[in-house]
Each structure stands twice: as C-alpha cells, then as structure tokens.
Design goal:
It is a single chain. By secondary structure, the protein is α+β, with helices and mostly antiparallel strands. Helices cover 49% and strands 13% of the residues. The protein has nine helices and three strands. The protein has a three-stranded mixed sheet. Strand 1 (106-111) and strand 2 form a beta hairpin. The longest helix is centred in the first third of the chain and has 26 residues, at 19-44. It is elongated. The chain starts with a helix and ends in an 11-residue tail after the last helix.
Length: 181
C-alpha cells in the first residue's frame, strides 16, 4: 500500500473526499515513498553483498585501496575476506577467507611436517580469475613462516571421454589441464 493511501485512510471520512486533502496526501505520499526508497538504498549500501556506491566507504573502513578497475563482485569478495580474516589462524579461518571469493567451496588441509596449507578448489574447473586477490587476502592473515599451495580441479580423462566433440568444443580451455586462461 502506498503512503498516499495510508494517509488518506487515516483521515476522517469528511476530509477523505476533499480534493485539497486528496492532493496533499498524493504529494506528501510521493515524498514519503521517495524517502523510504532512499533509506532502503542507504541501508543496502551498508551490507557488503548489496553495496554499490557504498563500496568505496566500506573499503576505506577496512583500509583497502579501492580498485575501480575490478568488477563489483571481486571488490565485494575482497571486503568479505578482510572482514572474515580476523581471529586465531586455523584451517577454518583460511577456508572462510578463501570461500569469500566467488569460486565455490574449498577444502583446506594442513600438510604434516610442513608449515603449509593445501587449498583445493572443489566446485569450479581451472584456475580462478581472481586467484591473485585470494592470495593477497590469505597473505594478510597468515604468519610469514606459513605457506599456501593451491590445487585446482580440471576435467578428468573419464569426463572428457564421455563428451561428444560438440560438447568438448563448448568447454573453455582453462577447464583442461594444459589449457590457458
């Protein structure tokens, strides 16, 4: 229900039929509708997943240099990683930071006898486009003596053998092990 209708309904019956009051409710109703839209937009820009023009403000709060050349989704992922990257270092924390980027789920395993974590991308094929951003976010939470290795998923021979030539032609090269970006 619009604000105009709410205002009209709250008036006594005698005033509801008055052209002057109807016009006043119409104009003020539009003003209130516009105000509610602006309030919703401001609130949306305080949330990382919905922010548009508010990304610059959020990036300044988290001390991230805004990179306007990156798509909004990548900038949001960097913000999420920074926000999640606080706390005691654990496989769970590394997983949370790595999954803040739009690359599907990951698994994190500490390698025994090494100061290294192995991060495996489970859902997507090939090397993620924003791997550099993921590496930068992880470097900020990892101590200097800890390393990270990545394991990527590619099409397996059994998956390729079951494809037709047309299906193989539709696959981007980066899904294949020797493919390029």
């Amino acid at each position: 229900m619009s604000n105009e209708q709410i205002m009209l309904d709250s008036l006594p019956e005698v005033l509801r039929n008055s052209p002057d009051f109807q016009e006043m409710c119409r104009v003020e109703g539009k003003i209130w509708d516009r105000l509610e839209t602006h309030i919703a937009e401001v609130l949306d820009n305080t949330l990382i997943d919905r922010a548009t023009w508010g990304l610059n403000i959020l990036e300044k709060e988290y001390r991230i240099m805004p990179d306007l050349s990156k798509p909004i989704e990548q900038r949001r992922s960097i913000l999420k990683a920074r926000k999640r990257g606080n706390g005691t270092l654990s496989a769970r924390l590394i997983k949370s930071v790595a999954e803040s980027f739009k690359n599907g789920s990951v698994s994190v395993q500490p390698l025994k006898g090494e100061s290294t974590f192995l991060i495996t991308f489970n859902d997507n094929y090939g090397i993620p486009e924003n791997l550099e951003d993921i590496q930068n976010a992880l470097r900020k939470i990892l101590p200097a003596h800890r390393l990270v290795r990545f394991q990527f998923r590619y099409l397996l021979i059994r998956e390729v053998q079951s494809m037709t030539i047309a299906q193989m032609n539709q696959q981007p090269l980066n899904k294949f092990s020797a493919g390029s970006q």
